[in-house]
Amino acid sequence: MKSSICYPFSVLPVEIALMIFKYAAKPMFSQKEDYNDTNPYANALSLCLISRLARLTVLRELLHTVLLPTCHNLEAFTSALEFQQKYTEDNSHLAFNYTRAMQRLWL
Question: The pTM is what?
Answer without folding.
Answer: 0.70
